[in-house]
């Protein structure tokens, strides 16, 4: 997208409800199917497209997309559980039309976009602001006031029902404030429809008046005591926190992860036959005739499409798969020895099937296979369960999933499990699947107040669990799961060690890192054309939400069995893709074997000292208070330090500091980078603000929060690791995140002192030394770096000596510091501007440093150029172990997007290779310890970037440490021999900081 283009973003959800409520009921004559909303939607969309494509009418879009709400829980529910809780369920006659409307959008040859965890408005905001940044114009087809905060000179709204453009003057005329103040206005007025609390008694007119007087919400709340009207003053003072919460609820997110980029939204020509086929299926005679005339098609020669209808219960209904399976002939021998049928037209003539052809055929076959929930079985007796387990053993393959009471695998209770197997009796080719759910822990909701009663007609856990254990521990049967680590850890708590398994999430991650999400719903829609039942559709949401053990068993069966069925089909599609892409080794050596290692680490957890955390919270509070006083003195007045608006006014308004710039909302930017630049320039107040932010964040994120993560039984903190959340292969942790504790500040290091060993044990911290620089020396083949690492020379001093001609012996600290900044900066594609800020030097001088660096180490420039070229040619780069990191936007026409992808393509092989090395080390360490007889006495607890943390019995520290170091330093072997040696520093102590 470029300047001069025009993007139309249609609020699809708004269209649906306008069409449903504005038009009389309509049913399909042949079977009584309600289609009124679909008809209204299609007519509105056709008129909009007809006008849009008519250059004589007005604005002509170059790009267009229809945006819908996703049915799953959004981030706003995490902020406020009552958000939208009072919304009633949609009318029964509307539910089956949601999926049809999405099919209608695709029939119109338009992108149909929705993103899990976000509302349509957030997606619209993200696209609109990205398009505006390219210089393009944007029209949002909606009249929703929530979207008016986006209106700018380049972003307009259009009310298609009233045929009215909405610009800045229109927003001001209607609401009394400019668009950038709409967030504050809505935060004050609230929204009864969405259950946004706001400030009771404050309506739009009052809010507009207050904003005109005080400027913004933060200033109003700070000065509320000045308001003369007592009732209004009290309402604002008593509901200040609700107003702040409401502001976050109404503020649109502009960072939604987008599956389709702006260039994917180009408005394509109408596919007349496809649209007519859909319209004829719904029996929309009048619109069919209009489309046929406009597209110059003979409607009588076009058959009605075979549109499938599902009477779902989702908030927006299921996304329907309108295509029935094509006829198949024969089958393709696959890697497991079965045969997967393929469309008759897909078989290449005169040759056998390559892995790529097999993968393509499987994908086509399963994308055409419908889901039939009526075939799912509820297993309520042991004889039926034994039969299914026997069938699973006979086929050697079973998809498996658990249903529980919590997302916390360390505290969840098992409620039931589902299975899916290939139905070889009905279809020996393997395309036909069947699935079942086994309830074992459901309770009666009515009895819940009395402690919960076991629901009738389910297998007792004491009978089901031994059979499940025998199946999961049977190495001759391959267990397939989606995000298996959760199920693995849960079953381990029940005494079951899952053996012989595949994980479809990890398969997708290996194949498509950097391309879309890897959750089951996303993969199902992408590869199977099927939107699975949303969890909230069977367990409820908001106040109506119940734990899974209280869900009706029949409803639970539809949800749980479908999950296993989807997983099995995904495995069928993804498994041959690994072979076709030559990525099987990456999956089997780096991903799959790490899963049980991480599960065991999560189960072990680590001890934290609550008293230390309490003391540190007090110290941080005192430090923050001291800084507040100093900040007020330097500013000459008191203000809300956490308010960007007030802080900006102080720094750039009152004090007139140089370097200020305003955001799109008209406020001064007070981001961390802006404050750091001011602090580097010698201004004292910004430095104090940076320090205050750091202390308050440490307090709220760690010292105050960590005690809440202590497990009630184990009395330890159990973080959760994600294998598939970064593009480069680095692990991430959450609940709590232990990888972001700062170690460069004294306060951050103090927090690590609270992580302790239990009596009679020590913590061992084993940390790779400069691993990414060593990887760079290896991949770029830099002789000077390679030699320095081989000889154990200080790499930063060596770099300084090479660049500045200064002897290593007696080198000034400042010279070495500059070389260190360049060394690490080069890895991350640092610019002259960034280096200048970091070293507090002129940009020209920083540019000379970088130029000289590449002159002294020309191999690094060659490496960078080769990685960028590889990304452009193939769309991906690789680590030294063959992991692929995809960059689909590397050829973007947007210079900033393209530059970002190029920098990432340079860094990813380095960071990814380092991540792969530590993965290999983690996989190898436990067997090495077991061989030394230390399996039970040395336990790996944490992985934090380049560091591993162990808990070791005192008597075994000296024996364990060299084993750990040796495994880590030789982790790359035997796959490859590094050109530079890996170095690991290890220490033991009673707390994490002392061991580090």
UniProtKB/TrEMBL annotation:
It catalyses: DNA(n) + a 2'-deoxyribonucleoside 5'-triphosphate = DNA(n+1) + diphosphate. Keywords: DNA damage, DNA repair, DNA replication, DNA-binding, DNA-directed DNA polymerase, Exonuclease, Hydrolase, Nuclease, Nucleotidyltransferase, Transferase. It comes from the Bacteria. It is an enzyme of class 2 (transferase). Residues 376-579 form the 3'-5' exonuclease domain. Residues 396-580 form the Exonuclease domain. InterPro entries: 3'-5'_exonuclease_dom, 5-3_exonucl_a-hlix_arch_N, 5-3_exonuclease, 5-3_exonuclease_C_sf, DNA-dir_DNA_pol_A_CS, DNA-dir_DNA_pol_A_palm_dom, DNA/RNA_pol_sf, DNA_polI_H3TH. One of its GO terms (molecular function) is DNA-directed DNA polymerase activity. Pfam families: 5_3_exonuc, 5_3_exonuc_N, DNA_pol_A, DNA_pol_A_exo1. Residues 748-956 form the DNA-directed DNA polymerase family A palm domain. Residues 5-268 form the 5'-3' exonuclease domain. Its EC number is 2.7.7.7. Belongs to the DNA polymerase type-A family. In addition to polymerase activity, this DNA polymerase exhibits 3'-5' and 5'-3' exonuclease activity. Single-chain monomer with multiple functions. This is DNA polymerase I. The lineage of its organism: Bacteria, Pseudomonadati, Pseudomonadota, Alphaproteobacteria, Hyphomicrobiales.
């Amino acid at each position: 997208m470029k300047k001069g283009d025009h993007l139309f973003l249609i609020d699809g959800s708004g269209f649906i409800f306008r069409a449903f409520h504005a038009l009389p009921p309509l049913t399909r004559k042949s079977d009584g199917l309600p289609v009124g909303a679909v008809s209204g939607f299609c007519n509105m969309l056709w008129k909009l497209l007809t006008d849009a494509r008519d250059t004589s009418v007005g604005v002509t879009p170059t790009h267009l997309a229809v945006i819908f709400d996703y049915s799953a829980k959004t981030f706003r529910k995490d902020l406020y559980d009552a958000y939208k809780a009072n919304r009633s369920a949609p009318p029964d006659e509307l539910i089956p039309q949601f999926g049809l409307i999405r099919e209608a959008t695709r029939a119109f040859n338009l992108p149909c976009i929705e993103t899990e965890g976000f509302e349509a408005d957030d997606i619209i905001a993200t696209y609109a602001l990205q398009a505006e940044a390219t210089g393009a114009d944007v029209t949002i087809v909606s009249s929703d006031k929530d979207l008016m905060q986006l209106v700018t000179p380049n972003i307009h709204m259009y009310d298609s029902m009233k045929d009215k453009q909405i610009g800045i003057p229109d927003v001001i005329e209607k609401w009394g404030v400019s668009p950038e103040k709409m967030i504050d206005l809505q935060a004050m007025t609230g929204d009864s429809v969405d259950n946004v609390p706001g400030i009771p008694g404050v309506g739009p007119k009052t809010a507009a008046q207050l904003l005109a007087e005080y400027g913004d919400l933060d200033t109003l709340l700070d000065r509320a005591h000045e308001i003369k009207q007592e009732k209004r003053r009290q309402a604002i003072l008593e509901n200040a926190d609700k107003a702040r919460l409401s502001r976050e609820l109404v503020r649109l997110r502009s960072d939604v992860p987008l599956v389709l980029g702006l260039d994917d939204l180009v408005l394509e020509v109408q596919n007349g036959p496809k649209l007519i086929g859909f319209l004829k299926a719904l029996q929309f005679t009048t619109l069919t005739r209009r489309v046929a005339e406009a597209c110059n098609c003979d409607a009588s020669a076009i058959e009605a499409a075979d549109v499938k209808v599902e009477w779902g219960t989702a908030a927006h209904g299921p996304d329907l798969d309108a295509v029935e399976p094509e006829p198949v002939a024969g089958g393709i021998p696959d890697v497991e020895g079965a045969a997967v049928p393929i469309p008759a037209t897909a078989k290449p003539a005169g040759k056998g099937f390559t892995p790529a052809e097999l993968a393509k055929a499987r994908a086509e076959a399963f994308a055409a296979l419908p889901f039939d929930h009526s075939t799912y079985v509820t297993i309520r007796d042991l004889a039926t369960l034994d039969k299914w387990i026997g069938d699973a053993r006979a086929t050697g393959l079973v998809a498996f999933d658990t249903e529980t009471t919590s997302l916390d695998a360390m505290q969840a209770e098992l409620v039931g499990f589902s299975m899916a197997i290939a139905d070889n009796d009905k279809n020996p080719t393997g395309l036909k699947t069947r699935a079942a759910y086994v309830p074992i822990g459901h309770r009666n909701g009515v009895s819940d107040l009395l402690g919960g009663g076991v629901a009738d007609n389910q297998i007792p856990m004491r009978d089901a669990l031994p059979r499940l254990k025998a199946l999961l521990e049977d190495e001759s049967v391959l267990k397939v799961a989606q995000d298996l680590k959760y199920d693995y850890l849960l079953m381990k708590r029940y005494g079951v060690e899952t053996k012989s398994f595949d994980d479809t999430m990890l398969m997708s991650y290996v194949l498509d890192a950097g391309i879309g999400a890897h959750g089951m719903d996303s993969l199902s829609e992408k590869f199977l054309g099927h939107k699975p039942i949303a969890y909230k559709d069977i367990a409820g949401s908001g106040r109506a939400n119940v734990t899974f053990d209280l869900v009706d068993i029949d409803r639970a069966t539809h949800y749980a069995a479908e999950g296993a069925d989807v997983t099995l089909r995904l495995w069928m599609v993804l498994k041959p893709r690994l072979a076709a892409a030559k990525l099987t080794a990456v999956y089997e050596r780096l991903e799959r074997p790490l899963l049980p290692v991480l599960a065991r680490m999560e189960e072990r957890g680590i001890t934290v000292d609550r008293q230390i955390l309490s003391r540190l919270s007090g110290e941080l509070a005192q430090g923050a208070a001291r800084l507040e006083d100093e900040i007020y003195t330097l500013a000459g007045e008191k203000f809300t330090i956490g308010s960007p608006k007030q802080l900006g006014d102080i720094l750039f308004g009152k004090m007139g500091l140089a370097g200020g710039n305003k955001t799109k909302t008209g406020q001064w930017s007070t981001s961390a980078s802006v404050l750091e630049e001011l602090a580097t320039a010698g201004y004292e107040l910004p430095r104090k603000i940076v320090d205050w932010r750091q202390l308050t964040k440490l307090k709220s994120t760690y010292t105050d929060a960590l005690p809440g993560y202590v497990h009630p039984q184990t009395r330890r903190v159990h973080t959760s690791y994600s294998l598939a959340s970064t593009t480069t292969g680095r692990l991430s942790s959450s609940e709590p995140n232990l990888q972001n504790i700062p170690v460069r500040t004294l306060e951050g290091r103090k927090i690590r002192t609270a992580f302790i060993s239990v009596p009679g044990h020590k913590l061992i911290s084993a940390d790779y030394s400069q691993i990414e620089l060593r990887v760079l020396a290896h991949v770029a083949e830099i002789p000077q770096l390679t030699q320095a690492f081989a000889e154990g020379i200080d790499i930063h001093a060596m770099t300084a000596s090479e660049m500045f001609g200064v002897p290593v012996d007696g080198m000034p600290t400042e010279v070495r510091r500059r070389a260190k900044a360049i060394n690490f900066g080069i890895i991350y594609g640092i610019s002259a501007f960034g280096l200048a800020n970091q070293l507090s030097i002129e940009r020209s001088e920083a540019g000379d440093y970088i130029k000289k660096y590449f002159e002294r180490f020309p191999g690094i420039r060659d490496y960078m150029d080769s990685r960028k070229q590889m990304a452009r040619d193939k769309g991906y780069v690789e680590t030294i172990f063959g992991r692929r990191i995809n960059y689909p936007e590397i050829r973007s026409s947007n210079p900033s997007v393209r530059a970002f992808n190029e920098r990432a393509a340079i860094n990813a092989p380095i960071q990814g290779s380092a991540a792969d090395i530590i993965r290999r080390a983690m996989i190898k360490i436990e067997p090495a310890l077991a061989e030394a007889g230390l399996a039970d006495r040395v336990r790996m607890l944490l992985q934090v970037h380049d560091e591993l943390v162990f808990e070791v019995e005192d008597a075994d520290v000296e024996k364990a440490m060299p084993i750990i170091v040796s495994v880590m330093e030789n982790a790359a072997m035997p796959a490859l021999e590094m050109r530079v040696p890996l170095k690991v520093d290890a220490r033991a102590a009673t707390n994490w900081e002392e061991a580090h």
